[in-house]
Design brief:
This protein has 10 helices and 6 strands. It is of the alpha/beta class. The chain folds into 2 domains: 137 residues, HAD superfamily/HAD-like (Rossmann fold), CATH 3.40.50; 86 residues, Putative phosphatase, domain 2 (DNA polymerase, domain 1), CATH 1.10.150. Strand 4, helix 9 and strand 5 form a beta-alpha-beta unit. Helix 1 packs across helix 4, helix 2 runs antiparallel to helix 3 and helix 5 packs parallel to helix 10. The longest helix has 20 residues. 38% of the residues are buried. The chain binds magnesium ion. The site of magnesium ion has 7 residues, from loops.
């Protein structure tokens, strides 16, 4: 693979940026700023409930079943409904404060920074990420990985999220890369892997569950392990 690949297309959340840890800290900060944290008995439980609801809202958003407003408000209102009824109606406000707190967090997944330092000398690095422009850019500045990145393509800028082929097409054109000379690295089977395969771009998939893996010339499966990726390339 090593001579052929010139461009790495890399997902940001859960792949480089430790979304789980960072969002848990940020939401706690946001709840505290709105004086809601004291009303929550068990923050770990609150966060688990939120996370499950948030995941289902993002899945609907990716399928374009709901719009951005429904996503950002609904995920918190549904959580309040279940575990903090007193806070109903605060969803939009909490979302605003949370989105301010979240990109100020800087935790990266193990090995991610070293990998980028190494890979940026050998490859063009294009981040391909679903999310909001301002938020995603602040994340890469705060975690100081912007210096290793040639381009970042955010779904809000392109108008459609992964797995739409349009966003991968746009990412390739940013790097002036041929699809056979690029590889997509990500943690979402639906967004990263299916999207790239539809464009005949090879993929490396950080599989959370092995049952999600399947046979394909274009698919390599590994758990989140940046050292393994380095050896693979
Ligand atoms: Mg991801």
């Amino acid at each position: 693979m090593q001579n052929k690949i010139k461009t790495l297309l890399i997902d940001l959340d859960h792949t480089l940026w430790d979304f789980e840890t960072n969002s848990k800290i940020a939401l706690k900060e946001a709840l505290s700023m709105l004086d809601l944290l004291d009303q929550i008995e068990d923050y770990d439980y609150f966060f688990d409930v939120y996370e499950e609801i948030n995941t289902s809202y993002w899945a609907k958003y990716r399928k374009r079943e709901i719009d951005r407003d429904k996503l950002i408000i609904g995920r918190f209102e549904d959580t309040f409904e279940k575990v903090l009824p007193n806070a109903r109606g605060c969803g939009l406000r909490l979302n605003d404060v949370y989105l301010e707190c979240m990109p100020r967090q800087s935790k990266l997944l193990p090995g991610a920074l070293d990998f980028l330092k190494y890979a940026s000398k050998k490859y063009k690095i294009v981040l391909v990420t679903n999310g909001f422009r301002k938020v995603q850019w602040q994340k890469i500045y705060t975690s100081k990985i912007d210096q290793y990145v040639d381009h970042m393509v955010v779904s809000e800028d392109v108008g459609v999220p992964k797995p739409s082929p349009k966003i991968f097409q746009y990412a390739l054109s940013c790097a002036n890369a041929k699809r056979t000379e690029a590889i997509m690295i990500g943690d979402s089977f639906e967004a990263d892997v299916m999207g790239a395969i539809a464009m005949k771009i090879p993929t490396i998939y950080f599989a959370k569950q092995t049952k999600e893996s399947f046979e394909s010339d274009y698919l390599l499966t590994t758990t989140v392990d940046w050292d393994a990726i380095r050896n693979l390339l």
